[in-house]
């Protein structure tokens, strides 16, 4: 791991396993609280170094890092596929997204500016002139999950560097290798060593020292709601950016293009084995087309090819651990026991869980109101848009949603009334570009990611006002 810019080893290690066959890929150090304090001490020096880097140097580092990833995209993709759940095709897409993320970060570095302020708008302030500008927050703790082990790290580190900050990354314990490879190319691209640490270890041992330390001025966290709530209670007075997941709804009205709606929602439900914060979990289908949609959806789901992640022919690999697959299996069984109808799937083999479709899931089931984070989708019959919107808003999440309709007026009704940070019209909830503001409301988190918006959140505003002596105009 990297502590204050230095590669270090430790006697106590954590095994990194391929969830497909439970084979050991590598080991990483199990960091201690002492390691965290060393990273923070180095990071406080890194704060001064990063703040003094001129914009063109920050841009050069980020662009060069993206170029290096492009040269090694097969290596990065294989790492993502082996340590996580993604197929090799999905992993390659993530590698290319990470390049875009870094390049967009470089571009946003040049756009980080303030504005002049007309202080003479107030009577008595005629002899004042001023402006505001943005300056770096300082030391940022970036805590990332397993499901996008490269691009979600890039989404935090890229903007942090663009804004002139130092950053300590705590990657997921099960997928730390991609983060370490990203750090390697950033240093090779010219990033000063103390600007970045990547500390590998268990959250129960290093989480509190990292988030509670007063030198850490911002926490950027992507993960579960309970962990986010715990961090917010412990962090103290500092900036928080949190993406806490969802239970994403999609509405399909009777005038929709059914072929398009089925294809998009199946892809949105089962990509990355459903381990996706904006993955489709609930689909509300207007009554007139429900039977047709359901039939097509199930047939398309059965064509999802589950198997070897490294095969180009595979559509879906295993879940991240067998334990997670067992949890999903239990949630589905609970729903079936309480009256849900299992249309397809519902079978587990180790960490593999087949793409699963249910209908008539009771509202009191865990599946109905929590984030499943697995390859499970529930279909619901609704009378129309109004009922669909009410049902979509029934959970304590609001990250992204989707609606399929040819009626622009109905689309705007959904846009206005669905409680979410984003709504995709004629697309599933699982659509995103890395330049857009991304985040949610209610239990889905605080703040917005997306490079430009993350850069802004990773800065503070300073107001400058000059008072000039009273003089006659010449």
UniProtKB/TrEMBL annotation:
Annotated InterPro entries: Ald_DH/histidinol_DH, Ald_DH_C, Ald_DH_N, Aldehyde_DH_dom, ALDH-related_metabolic_enz
CDD domains: ALDH_y4uC (cd07149)
Entries under Pfam families matching the protein: Aldedh
Domain Aldehyde dehydrogenase: 7-464
Keywords from the UniProt entry: Oxidoreductase
Enzyme Commission number: 1.2.1.97
GO MF entries: lactaldehyde dehydrogenase (NAD+) activity
Reactions mediated catalytically: (2S)-3-sulfolactaldehyde + NAD(+) + H2O = (2S)-3-sulfolactate + NADH + 2 H(+)
Assigned protein family: Belongs to the aldehyde dehydrogenase family.
Job of this protein: Part of the sulfo-TAL (or sulfo-SFT) pathway, a D-sulfoquinovose degradation pathway that produces sulfolactate (SL). Catalyzes the oxidation of 3-sulfolactaldehyde (SLA) to sulfolactate (SL).
Name this protein carries in UniProt: 3-sulfolactaldehyde dehydrogenase
Organism encoding this protein: Novibacillus thermophilus
């Amino acid at each position: 791991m990297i502590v204050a810019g230095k590669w270090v080893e430790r006697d106590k290690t954590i095994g990194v396993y391929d969830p497909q066959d439970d084979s050991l890929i590598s080991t990483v150090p199990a960091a201690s609280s002492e390691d965290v304090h060393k990273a923070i001490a180095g990071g406080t020096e890194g704060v001064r170094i990063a703040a003094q880097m001129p914009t063109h140097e920050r841009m050069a580092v980020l662009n060069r890092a993206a170029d290096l990833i492009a040269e090694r995209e097969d290596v990065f993709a294989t790492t993502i596929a082996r340590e996580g759940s993604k197929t090799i095709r999905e992993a390659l897409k993530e590698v290319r997204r990470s390049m875009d993320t870094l390049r967009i970060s470089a571009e946003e570095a040049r756009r980080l500016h303030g504005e002049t302020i007309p202080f003479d708008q107030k009577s008595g302030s005629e002899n004042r002139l001023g402006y505001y500008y943005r300056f770096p927050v300082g030391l940022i703790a970036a805590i990332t999950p397993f499901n996008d082990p490269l691009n979600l790290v890039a989404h935090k580190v890229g903007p942090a560097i663009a804004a002139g900050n130092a950053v300590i990354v705590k990657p997921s314990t099960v997928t730390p290798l991609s983060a370490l490879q990203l750090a390697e190319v950033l240093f090779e691209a010219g990033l000063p060593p103390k600007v970045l640490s990547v500390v590998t270890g268990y959250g129960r041992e290093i989480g509190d020292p990292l988030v509670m330390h007063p030198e850490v001025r911002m926490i950027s966290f992507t993960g579960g709601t309970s962990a986010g709530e715990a961090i917010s209670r412990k962090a103290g007075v500092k900036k928080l950016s949190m993406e806490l997941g969802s239970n994403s709804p999609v509405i399909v009205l009777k005038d929709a293009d059914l072929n398009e709606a089925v294809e998009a929602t199946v892809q949105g439900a089962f990509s990355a084995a459903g381990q996706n914060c904006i993955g489709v979990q609930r689909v509300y289908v207007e009554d007139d087309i429900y039977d047709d949609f359901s039939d097509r959806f199930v047939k398309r789901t059965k064509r999802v090819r589950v198997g070897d992640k490294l095969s180009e022919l595979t559509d879906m690999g295993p879940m991240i651990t067998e334990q997670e697959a067992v949890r999903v299996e239990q949630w589905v069984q609970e729903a079936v026991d309480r009256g849900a109808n299992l249309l397809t799937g519902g079978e587990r083999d180790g960490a593999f869980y087949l793409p699963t479709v249910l209908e008539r899931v009771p509202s009191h089931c865990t599946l109905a109101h929590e984030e499943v984070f697995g390859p499970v989708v529930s279909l619901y019959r609704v009378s129309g848009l109004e009922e669909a919107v009410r049902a979509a808003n029934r959970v304590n999440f609001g990250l992204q949603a989707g609606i399929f309709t040819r009626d622009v007026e109905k689309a705007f009704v959904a846009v206005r009334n669905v409680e979410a940070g984003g709504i995709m019209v004629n697309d599933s909830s699982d659509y995103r570009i890395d330049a857009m503001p991304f985040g949610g409301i209610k239990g889905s988190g605080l703040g917005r990611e997306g490079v430009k918006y993350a850069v802004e959140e990773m800065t503070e505003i300073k107001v400058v006002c000059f008072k000039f002596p009273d003089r006659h105009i010449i």
